[in-house]
Amino acid sequence: MSTISIRKYASENGALAGLVVLALVIAVMQPAFLNAQNLLNVGVQAAVIAIMAFGMTFVVVAGGIDLSVGSIAALAAMVGALTAGPIGLVVGALCGLVNGALISYGKLPPFIATLAMLSVARGLTLVFSEGQPHETDALVTFLGSNLAPMVPLPLLLMLAFFGITGLILTRTNLGRRMYAIGGNEEAAKLSGIDVRRQKLWIYALSGLFAAAAGLVLAGRLGSAGPQAAVGYELDAIAAVVIGGASLSGGVGRATGTLVGALVLAVLRNGLNLLQVPPFWQQVVIGAVIALAALLDSLRRR
Amino acid sequence: MKTLITARGITKHFGATKALDGVDLDINAGEVHVLLGENGAGKSTLVKVLAGIHGHDAGTIEGHASLAVIHQELALVPELSVAENLFLNRLPRRFGFVDRAEMRRRAPELLDRVGLDVDPDAKVRDLGIAQQQMIEIARALDKDAGVLILDEPTAVLTETETDRLLQIMVQLRQNGVGLVFITHHLDEIQRVADRITVLRDGRSVGVLGPKATTRHMIELMVGRPIDEQYPRARQRPGQPLLSIEGLTRRGAFEDISIEVHAGEVVGIAGLVGAGRTEVARAAFGVDGYDHGTVEVDGKPLRRGDVQAAIKAGLGLVPEDRKGQGLVLTATVGQNLELVTLGDRDQKRLHDIAGKLRIKGRVEQPVKELSGGNQQKVVIGKWLLADPKVLILDEPTRGVDVGAKVEIYELINRMTAQGRAVLLVSSDLPEVIGMSDRVVVMAHGRVAGELPRGATQDQVMALAVQEISA
C-alpha cells in the first residue's frame, strides 16, 4: 500500500482507529473488558443510540439536525406499550413527517422545528402515560431479549439497521440526494431535485428510526417510561459527529456512525469497569467528544 | 524606480504537486504588475506566499513594504457599518468605548481616496459588491500598504464598475503604490498594465511589456498557438425549441419574448441588473413570474416547476458555479449524475467525462478541480440528461482561456446535434463572437436584437439606453 492510500485509509477511518485504541487501553487497564459477555453488553448498550444515530445520519448528511429523536423514541415506546408496537413505529414516522413539513413547507430552521417536536412529543408521552411507566407487550419485550444464549436481538437489530442505512445512503436515489442537498441545496434544486419532498422523507426516516430505537429500549427494560431516552438526541448527534459526518452537511457514512455509537458505548462500559464515579464519567465523555471533533477538524486541514 | 518587493526562485509544493517552481517577481513602486495565467497556473499560490499565508519551500522574498491583498471573497462584516469595517480591528476608542464621532470624522477622508460616496453609517450588507470592494481597498490604504494585490477583483464587477476600479488603480499608481493585478480579462490588462508576468504550470514563462498583444498573451498562457478565440460554427436553424412569450415579473423583467431555434445560439447581453439571469431562472422554473409563457419544443411549461422543465428538455447552467452549480463536498461522478439520478449508467458517466476532457478522475472530489474543469462538470451533468435546450448563464466566468475555447467547442457540438443554446454573458466579445443573434436587455426589457457580426458599441448603445416605462 502506498503512503497516499494509507493516509487516505487513515483519514477515512479515523474514528475506527480511535475505537481500537480506546478498546486496547481499556483492555490493558481492565482485562475483564474483553470478556465475551461484557462485549455483548457493550453491543446491546450501543444498539439504542446506534439505531437512533443511523436515522440522524440521514438528516445530518442532508444538512439538517433532529433534536426530537429522544422524545420521539419515548412517545413511540409509550404508544407501543399502550396499544401495539407497530403503531409506535407509525407514530414515530408521523412525528418525523411533521418535522419535515415544518422545515420544507413552513421554512422553519431544522433546529427550531425539531426543538418544538422535542417538547411536543415528550409532553404527549407524559399525557398518554399519565406520568406512569407502562409494561410492554410480548412483541416489544421480545425485541429487547436474547434470541438464543449469547445472541442478543438488539445487537442483531443494530446490525440490520446498519445494513439498511448503508444501503439507503449509497444505493438509493433518496440517499444520493441527501448528499446533494446537504452539500449544496441550491445546486440540488437547480438539478431538478425536489428538495422539499426529499426532506419530508428524510425526517420521516429519522422519526421511524427513533421509534425503532425507543421500542428496543422499552423491550430491554420491559416497560416504557415517560422519562425514557431523555437527552438521547445528544448522544445520537455525538455518535454521528464522532463518526466523521459534518454538521454542515454533505458528508457522513453508516460505518462512521456505527463506530461513533460503539465509541460512546465502549467508553461508558470502560469507565464503569474502571469504577470511575458517574459524575466524572460525564466529564470524560464530553472531553472525548471534543477530542474526536478536534482530531477530525485537524485531519481535514 | 524603487523596487518594493523582490521574490526570487519561489518554489512551493502541495504534497506531490509542485504549485510554484522557481518563480521570480519584482514589485515596483508606482507600477501595475499583472499576473496572468490559466486557473491552476499558480497565481493565487504566489499571492498567498507573498502575503505570508503559505510558506515556501525554496527561494527568497525581500522587501519592507507592507502588503495588502484584496481577495475575491471579500473580508468584510456585512452586519457592521461602513465606518466600522474601515477601522475594524483598530477602532478609535475613547474611555475604553468605541469613539463613533472620531470614526465618522475619519471615514469620509478614507472613502474619498477611493472615490466612494457612501454614508459611513450604512451597513455594508446594503452596498453593492463594487462598493464593498472599494471599502476593502480603502481599508488597505489606511494601513499604509505600499503594495496592494488585487486577486481577480473585476470578476464580479460590471463594465462601469470595472472602469471605476481601473481609474482608481491608475491613481494609486501615481501615488507610488505598487499594484499586483490578477485578471482574466485581457482588455483590462491592456488598459493598465506596466508589466505582465505570465505563469504556466507554476513557472514564470515570460515577462511582457504594456504593448503585448492579446494573441501573444494567450499563447504564452496556454503554451501553444491559438487558432481562434471564438470558433463559432453556425448551423442552419431548425424549428423553434425554446419560445419565451411576454414573460413578465413585476419589478424584475417585463414583456420578454425570445425564441431560440434548433441549431442556434442566441445570446443575451446587457448590464448587470438588466434582468438577464432573472429571465433565465424564471424560464427554467426556479423562480415564478406573473404572466407570459415558456414553451420547449412546442410544449408549454408549468410555472415554477423545475422538474417539468427538465422533463420537457430544458437545462440551466447557473451563473454561480460553486454556489449553484456544484456540490463541492461530492466527487466529479456524483456531480455528473445529479440530474440523471434515476439511471445510473457508469459507462455513460465515464464517456462524458472523457468527451469533455475533464482533467480529473470521476472519483475525485470536484473541489480539487480547476474552475474550467468544474464548469465542464456542470455542463456535463446536463449533457447526460440529453436536453433540447441548454441555458448557459455566464458559462466562462472565472474560466481560463484554454478551457473557454473547449466550452465554445462544446456549444458548437451541441448545436451541430440540433440542440439550441441560450447564452447569457457579460463578456461582450464572447456573447458577440459565439451567438448567431444577440438579444440586448436593459432595465428588465428587451432593448433590441442584433444579428451576427454586431459590434460592441452597438450592443452597449442598446444596453445603456433608457427605456420609458
UniProtKB/TrEMBL annotation, chain A:
One GO CC term, this protein: plasma membrane
UniProt-listed Pfam families: BPD_transp_2 (PF02653)
Transmembrane segments: 15-34, 46-65, 71-98, 110-129, 149-169, 200-218, 279-298
Subcellular location: Cell membrane
Name this protein carries in UniProt: Ribose transport system permease protein
InterPro entries reported for this sequence: ABC_transp_permease (IPR001851)
One Gene Ontology MF term: transmembrane transporter activity
Organism: Lentzea flaviverrucosa
The entry's keywords: Cell membrane, Membrane, Transmembrane, Transmembrane helix
Membrane topology: Multi-pass membrane protein
Domain of life: Bacteria
